[in-house]
Amino acid sequence: MERVAGVLVAIALVVLLGGCWGPQMVTRGFDDWLNEGYVRSPWLYGNAVSYAMWSTGFMLTNLADAFANMYYFWVKDAQPFGNGVGTRYDHHKPVTPK
Question: At 78, which helix (H) or strand (E)?
Answer without folding.
Answer: none
